Amino acid sequence: MKHQFDIAVFEGDGIGPEIMEPTVKILAEMATAGEYALNFNVVPAGAAHYAATGESLPEASMDAARNSDAILLSAMGLPSVRYEDGTEISPQIDLRKALTLFAGVRPVRIFPGQKTPLNMPEGKEVDFVLIRESTEGLFHTQGKGEVTQDEARETLLITRDISEKLFRFTFGLAKERKQQGRGPGRVTCVDKANVFRSFAFFREIFDAEAKKHPDLTADHAYVDATALWFVLKPWDFDVLVTENMFGDILSDLGAGLMGGLGVAPSADIGLEHAVFQPCHGSAPDIAGQGIANPLAMILSGAMMLDWLGVRHDNPKLVKDGTRLREAVEAVIGKGEVLTGDLGGTAGTQDAANAVVDMLGQS
């Protein structure tokens, strides 16, 4: 009997629906050939929905997300559609907070054939994961900061409860990567503990968790130095963990190392739920033209398969997640079918078809 998994699908804004369509099709085809079934439930949310209805994340959509086995979310938000306070529509952040998705997982990989602005030394490989706390930090007062005529304030929040969950997840991931031969088992806490008491608190909780994992190496780095080292020696990193805003910034820098946001997937994971989405925005300037890069969305789908497989002890799902990731990487590495952001001329469907063809060869 096949395992059944319900997937809530948020198609997003701008190019969101265009990159979601081929991703869902690929995942559905893989499920048909596998030992599991994926039931996709498309639900409304986003800036366009807000403009039409006054709701950015309807309660029914929130319920569907909460009751699903996983959530697949495309790019959301439109610069032209904002709340009354001037902030952009961002249901993805509302989902993170409502479902306590504290671990934002941002993989950074540079493999043979992939274009990168780095001058890569021979024999070096970049394969690390940045874990961004995704529910508090400097995003805590999102939309609720204090603003007067003369000053504005936002509140950074770091709690012991969320930090302990975050660090347990991070060390667990480092252990998994070490067992898979993908990393040395090194965890780096990225903070600014030399200036802010909140980050000294963050580091103290990290160190307490590190003592429970003598088989792993734990160290620290200030966020400004980490940005420098991302460029000078990214191959030294394995797993990094940091606060929400620092992670937001560093994850885009990591995407730049890989050649752009078009190949940067992500996941936001909690104890019971997980959202999988590309790191890039909705790019309304190219929406409807059929030229958007779907690869980050497809890679996020691969991350979803892997997470479901591990969570439900389903080796076929894990295997398919790896197959899909490797198929995308092979397409990028060959460089024959690339969208404009990667220096090619292929359209959205061309890139997706290339992934399908590569899957057929695996």
From TrEMBL:
Cofactor requirements of the protein: Mn(2+); Mg(2+)
Enzyme Commission number(s) of this protein: 1.1.1.85
UniProt keywords, alphabetically: Amino-acid biosynthesis, Branched-chain amino acid biosynthesis, Leucine biosynthesis, Magnesium, Manganese, Metal-binding, NAD, Oxidoreductase
Cross-referenced InterPro entries: ICDH/IPMDH (IPR050501), IsoCit/isopropylmalate_DH_CS (IPR019818), IsoPropMal-DH-like_dom (IPR024084)
One biological process term in Gene Ontology: L-leucine biosynthetic process
Under Gene Ontology molecular function, one entry of this record is: magnesium ion binding
SMART domains named in the record? Iso_dh
Boundaries of every Isopropylmalate dehydrogenase-like domain copy: 6-355
Which superkingdom is the protein from? Bacteria
| PANTHER family, per database record | D-MALATE DEHYDROGENASE [DECARBOXYLATING]
SUBUNIT field: Homodimer.
Stated family:
Belongs to the isocitrate and isopropylmalate dehydrogenases family. LeuB type 1 subfamily.
Which protein is depicted?
A: 3-isopropylmalate dehydrogenase
Species of origin? Sulfitobacter geojensis
